[in-house]
Amino acid sequence: MSLQHHDGHEVRHLSEISRRSLLKGFGIGVGLVAFSDFIAEAATSQTVKLPGFSAFASSVKVTRGANYYLIESNGIPAHQMMVGIKSWQEQIPTPQPYFGNNAWSLPIKPALAATPISNVGNFLRGAIAIAANGIPIFNALNNRGDDAFLAGELDNFGGHCGQADDYHYHTAPLHLQSVVGTTSPIAYALDGFAIYGALEPDGTPINKLDSYNGHTYKKGLYHYHGTATYPYINGGFRGVVTQKDGQVDPQAATHAFRPSQAPLPGATITSCRNLGNGHFILTYTLNGQVTTIDYRADFSTVTILTTVGSSTPTQQVFKRVVS
Questions:
Q1: Which 3 state secondary structure label does DSSP give 22?
Q2: Which end of the chain is more exposed for a tag (fewer CB within 10 A), N or C?
Q3: Which own/partner contact pairs does 49-54 have at CB distance under 8 Å and 24+ positions apart?
Q4: Where are the domains of the chain?
Q5: Displacement of CA 52 from its chain's centroid (Å)
Q6: Cβ contact 46:70 at 8 Å
Q7: E-assigned strands of 184-288?
Q8: Are the beta carbons of 254 and 96 closer than 8 angstroms?
Q9: pLDDT of the residue at 213
Q10: What pTM did the predictor assign?
Q11: Per-residue pLDDT tens for 215-257?
C-alpha cells in the first residue's frame, strides 16, 4: 500500500511516552489501559511504502499503526563508514536493534507547533531525524555544543559512531538524493515532517528557508531541506515534539557494551570494510604504524581482535544489552 505524508492535526502517539519506558513502567504501575493501547497499536501495524524509505526496502522496513509509522533497520548503511574522520575516539560501527519496540517512530499526521524549538542548546542527545536508509541523524552540534563537522569528527558521509558504537549522521545525507530521486525525501525529522535534498520536490531550486532549514511549500505543506552549510539538516523542530532529558521522546535506544573510549589524536582511519553478517575490519594508522581492528558484532556479543603492527593480536569479548 502506497501512502503520502501530509500535514494534519497533532497526534500524541503512545501518550507521549517512550515505548521502552512504557514497557518498563508497566512492571511498576503504568496503567493497563496504556499498555493495552500499545499492544493494540503494534498488533495492527502493517508494512507500507513511505516516500524515500521505499528506495531502501531491502534493508529498511516501514510499518503503519493507527497513529505513527515505525521505521526498522540495523543502523548500518551500504556506503563506506569512518574514513575521513580527523578526531576519533576509537568507536566502531556495530549493528543496532532498531526493531519492534525499539524502532524509530514518526507521527503519521505531524502538526506545526505553536512554539518551535531550536536545536541550539536543545536536543544535544539522541537523534533528531531518521534518514531514508534507516540511519539516525543527530543534531549538527555535538554533546558539547560544537559543530561536529567543523570539529573534524565526521567521516566523508557526515557520520561517526557514538558511545554505544552506533553509527549516525550529524549532517544531511545529501548523497541519498541520487538514490531516492528529487521528488522523495532523503530523511524525515522526528516531528514527522519530510526533509528533502538540495532541490524542491518538483526539481526547482530551493526557495528561501527559515531558521529551521524549512519552509511552507505548495498546498501549504511544510518541509525541511538538507543543506551543505549549517544547520545542514532540520535546525530544530517546527513540528510538535516532546523533549525529555535533552532528546526527542520517544527515541530508539542504544546501549554501550564497553566503557567510553579515549580520543586517539593523530589517528587516520584508512578503511572500514563491511564483510557482511556483522563482520567488519577497520584499519587506521598512527605514528606510521598500522593497526587493524577485526571484529564481529551481533545483538548479543561483540568480539574484537586488534593487531598493532606485527604484534600478536589481542582479543576482547563483550556482551551486549539490547532491551
A1: helix
A2: N
A3: 49/1, 49/2, 49/3, 50/3, 50/5, 51/4, 51/5, 51/180, 51/183, 51/184, 51/185, 51/194, 52/132, 52/176, 52/180, 52/184, 52/185, 52/186, 52/187, 52/188, 52/194, 53/132, 53/134, 54/184
A4: 13-249, 268-319
A5: 15
A6: no
A7: 187-189, 194-196, 214-216, 222-225, 236-239, 242-244, 247-249, 268-276, 279-286
A8: yes
A9: 98
A10: 0.86
A11: 999 888 999 999 999 999 999 999 999 999 999 999 999 999 9
> Looking at the predicted structure, is the pLDDT value of residue 12 above 60?
no
CB 292 within 8 A of CB 277: no
* Mean pLDDT over the full length of the chain: 88
Residues in the chain, overall count: 323
b/e code 187-219 from CB counts within 10 Å (16+ = b): bbbbbbbbbbbeebbeeeeeeeeeebbbbeeee
- Where does residue 113 rank: exposed (0-12), middle (13-18), buried (19+ CB within 10 A)? middle
The whole-angstrom separation of Cα 16 and Cα 108 is 14
CB-based contact 152:86 (threshold 8 Å): yes
d(C-alpha 236, C-alpha 56), whole Å? 26
3: Cβ–Cβ under 8 A, 6 or more apart, which residues?
48, 49, 50, 64
pLDDT tens-digit series, residues 111-164? 999 999 999 999 999 999 999 999 999 999 998 889 999 999 999 999 999 999
* Residue 182 CA: distances (Å) to CA of 123, 174, 179, 286: 28, 11, 9, 41
Name the grid cell of 78.
Answer: 551500504
> How much is the pLDDT for 219?
83
- Return the residue matching grid coordinates 555544543: 145
Place of cell 544547520: 231
Q: What distance in Å separates the CA atoms of residue 119 and residue 133, rounded to the nearest whole number? A: 23
Residue entry with cell 532498531:
98
How far apart are the C-alpha atoms of 193 and 108, rounded to whole Å? 9
